[in-house]
Amino acid sequence: MGTLKRFFKKPVKYLRKFLGLQGYSDAFKRYFDADNARAGMILASLVIALELFMIGYVSYHIIFDSKARSFLWIVQHLSAYLILLLSGVWLFVFNYRSITGKTNNRNMGKATMLFFAAVALTFGTYISYLDYAKGEHILTFVTMEIFVFGLMIWRPVVSLLIITASFLIFYRLCDSVTPATFGFKMNLFTVWLSISAINITRYYQKLLEIKKAEHIENVNTYLGEIAVTDEGTGIGNMVAFRNRVGEIRSMDKEDFLSRIFLFLDISNFASYNKKHGFDEGSRFLNMVAHTIQYTFKDDPVARFSDDHFVVFTRREPMANLSADEIKYVFQEKISSIRQKIVDTDEDVKLGLKVGSYIPEDVACHTNTACDFARYACDSIKKKFDVDYCEYTTASAEDFARKQYIINNIDKAISEGYIHIYYQPVVLSKNKQLCGFEALARWIDPKYGFMPPYAFISVLEEYRQIHKLDAYILKSVCKDILDAPKKNIPVLPISINFSRLDFELMDIVSLLEENVEKNKIDKKLVHIEVTESALSENGKPLQTTLHMLKDKGYSLWLDDFGSGYSGLNILKEYEFDMMKIDMAFLRNFTNTPKSRPILKNIVQLANDIGMQTLSEGVETEDAFEFLQSIGCERIQGYLFGKPMPKDEVIQKILAGEFKLAD
Q1: CA 604 to CA 597: how far, in whole Å?
Q2: Of 26, 414, 425, 430, which one has the greatest count of Cβ atoms within 10 A?
Q3: CA dihedral in degrees (630, 631, 636, 642; nearest 10)?
């Protein structure tokens, strides 16, 4: 029995497909109905025009033709014409309303189509039956069959049943009046076969067209969805967020102004990712994303980037609280999200920092508002006891300065707003000048003199620092090349490189372009890298530093002691110079522990073959101590602040600096 069932399975499947008995998607049904609606309007128009003509023709003969047809003929035909005309009008009206979207009742559409088919086929059968009885042609019957099944699309099983039934009924009627000849039977069979074939062929042509259209619709739907969906989490992306915020802005200005932009940043997510792996980190982000979406289910929510999210929610005060203890609903929601994040892993200290911005007017751009909220969030990143910050007027001024720096760094370089200052480095044994550190100062036409702390951290935050450091290297090399032309002694110059420089540019190629091609002695260019950069960048940076070491550059470890992994770095890297962080010399006289620490650092450096330089030396007491413990080089205000090149030249020529041999 099972074998027999499998044997018939494929033929039955193909038969069902041929007859159009398989199920169809909603998209197919929409296309099918739309096509029939258009075909129905065309068919109705033809029928209305034809029947109006026939009614006019019969009326003309009644009035003007003395040989007019019998009264019975006139009643029969006029009644048939009028019924078909009215059904055509109904078909036209219904399909017009369907096409224009005024009705979408699919069952009513099917009923209308079947009703018209029944009227048209009955009309054709009746008129041609009368004509056949008088020995005339049966063109009306054939015409109605072509109209109904040649223009409109039917499932094959339905069309075959109706066509076959109508032909059999017509044949029986005609044969009852005058026995049908063999020729009539064959002609009728040929017409049946032709109309059936036309209808089935049109059905499959339309089926293919609809499948193609459905595929295109599905592709467009998919593309539309991914265009507004974050691929990593499945919630909305910034495109969707901007669209929804825009809708709120245009629909209800009061609602827009009663809301607040929130920027959410998961604290310490990198550590979670490192501990659990990328896949688990992705699942965690997905969980957080959907938690935020569920918590703010009626508000625009999106993934901004990485582990950052944005929300545009209402500022509704919580009930039953006094004016002094007012708290907003969104703050309570944030607290619940934060708690869920914190509870995820007790070993990894996860958290949630939130910045906010209240729009001042409806013209507020969504991107700008998110940037303001983000800036407020960034301002508390290192404040472990603060989780929420609102963007204020003071924040606005600071943010404006930040934006100005980012937007104008290229102009500052090209217009010469960036100046290279040189701070002296002296030998501790004799206080003789042995080199300089190159430092940047931004003298801006709008903000005036800007010290490094005002712009370097901003450039690092927005990944623009490589532009500044490349410019400093180029300027230093130019000054080294120009020095002999002015009879100025050339001394080594150290240049700071940010950890991001090793990501954003090819430092080896940059040095080759500016140092090696200009035949500058590599001993004159020292490369400074901060301790924190080494702990964050790992293997790629280590490889680059080894390449520079092999090429003959002197490598300096800057700010030693400012981080948490200094000893491990000394083991992994080969540096020529250790620059001891100035923090050890703060309040030097009143901090007795600084002395043994500094002494042991210098001793450690000597033991592993590194020279030492202490920065931030401002007093003779500190200098004398450093000299006594064997620190080779000194840098600090005691021997000179950072100064412009012209001032350095002036001091050298005036003999204020004693040059080292």
Answers
A1: 10
A2: 425
A3: 130
- Which residues are CB-neighbours of 627 under 8 A, at least 6 positions away? 428, 429, 634
Mean pLDDT of 359-369: 91
- Report DSSP letters for 582-617, one per residue: GGGGTT-TT-TTHHHHHHHHHHHHHHTT-EEEEE--
Task: Report the DSSP beta bridge partners of residue 305.
Answer: 308
pLDDT digits (tens, 9 = 90+) for 431-452: 999 999 999 999 999 999 998 8
Position 544: which residue type?
A: T
Residue 383: φ, ψ to 5°: -100, 100
CA 353/CA 390 separation, integer angstroms: 11
Cβ partners under 8 Å of residue 618, min gap 6: 585, 636, 637, 638
In degrees and rounded to multiples of 5, residue 388 shows phi and psi of -140, 140
Supply the DSSP symbol for 148. I
Torsion, CA 269, CA 274, CA 276, CA 278, rounded to 10: 80
* 329: nearest Cα among 312, 315, 339: 315
Q: What would the two tokens of residue 264 be?
A: 């959410």
**CA angle in degrees (0–180, nearest 5) for 615-543-553:** 50
Q: Cβ neighbours of residue 496 under 8 Å, at least 6 residues apart? A: 437, 438, 439, 469, 472, 528, 530, 558
Place of tokens 């200290």: 349
Enter the DSSP assignment of 154: -
Q: State both tokens at 263.
A: 């920027």
What's at 609, amino acid-wise? G
What residue ranges in 216-290 does DSSP mark as E strands?
A: 259-267
| Rounded CA separation 614/558 (Å) | 10
Question: 73-94: per-residue pLDDT in tens?
Answer: 777 778 888 888 888 888 888 8
DSSP 376-414: HHHTTTT-TT--EEE--HHHHHHHHHHHHHHHHHHHHHH
Question: How far is 39 from 96, CA to CA, in rounded Å?
Answer: 11
- Please, are residues 557 and 591 in contact by the beta-carbon 8 Å criterion? no
Which amino acid, residue 72? L
> How many CA atoms within 13 Å lie on the side-chain side of 189?
7
Q: Fill in the DSSP letter of residue 559.
A: E
b/e code 628-644 from CB counts within 10 Å (16+ = b) = ebebbbbbbebbbebbe
Cα separation, 301 vs 292, in Å, equals 8
Radius of gyration for the chain, computed over Cα atoms and rounded to the nearest angstrom: 44
Q: Is residue 562 within 8 Å of 590, Cβ to Cβ?
A: no
Query: Tokens in use for 491?
Result: 């001394």
d(CA 614, CA 141): 109
The alpha-helical segments, DSSP class H, found in 135-155 are 139-146
